[in-house]
Amino acid sequence: MRLHVGCAMWSHGSWFERQPPAAERLRRYAEHCTAVEGNTTFYATPARRTAESWAAQLSPDFRFYAKLPRPVTHEHRLGGGAAELAAFLDAMEPLGPSLHALWVQLPPTFGPNDLGALAAFLPALPAGPGIAVEVRHPAFFEDVEQARRLVRVLSAAGAEWVTFDTTTLYAAPPRTPAEHEAWGKKPRLPRRTPALGPHPVVRYHGRDDAEATIAGWAPWLETVAGWLHEGRSPTVFVHTPDNGDALGLARRFHAEVRALVPELEPLPEPEPAHAPTLF
C-alpha cells in the first residue's frame, strides 16, 4: 500500500539550511518525498544527459511525472508537434521506471470540441509510463455530459484525470504577494474527487498560511484513505503560493493519511540535519 507525495519542484531556497549542489538537489529532495511534478519539461525539453543525471539520483519506485512540452499541448493542441514530442520522449527515456507517467497539461481553451484530438493523441503515446491528463475548461466540471465524454476518452487510453484543487487558495482574498500572483494564474474550478484508475493524481493548492493549507486539505484525507482501501495507489502534490513550506506540508499530509490508514507504508526518513524545520 503506497501513497506518494511531492511538490511542484525539487529545489527551493528555503527547504534546506545549506543548498545542495545542483547535481544533488533531486536526490536530496527524494529523501523527503516520493514524487515530483516535472514542470521544467513543460517549458523546455532537457538534454538526454540531464535526464540521465536525474535517473542516477532516484530509486525505481520514485514517481517522476514529466509534463509534455508546451508546443505539443498548447501551441499545436495535440494536433501536431511530432518532432517536439519525439525529442521529449527520447530525452525522458533514461528515467526508466522512475518515469511514472507522462503528464498532458491542457490549456483552459481546450474544451469539449477538442476531445477528438485528445482521443487520437493518447493511444499514440508509448507504452510503459502511465498517462495523466489535466484539463481546465469549465465545461468538464460544470456539464455532466461533457465530463462523461472526457472520462470515456481517458478510460479508453488508461489515463488518469488529474485533479487540480484550488478551492483553499480561493477561499479568502489574497494576503501575500505570492497569493496575489497565484490568483492571477491558477484555475478556479470546482473540486473533483472521483478516481478513474489505479493511480489517481491530485494537485492540492493551499495558502502561504500553513495552518490554512492544512485545514483546507481535510476533505482529501478521507478521499485518499478511501482510495488506498480500494487498492489504489494515489499521488498527491502539495502546492502553496510561494512553496516555501511545501516540502514539509507534503510530508505532513502523508502523516495525516497514515493516521487514518496505519498499514500505509511510511515515507523515507531523511537525515535530521537536512529536514525541513516547519513541522
TrEMBL record:
Residues 176-197 are annotated as: Disordered. Pfam families: DUF72. Coiled coil: none annotated. Signal peptide: none annotated. It comes from the Bacteria. This is DUF72 domain-containing protein.
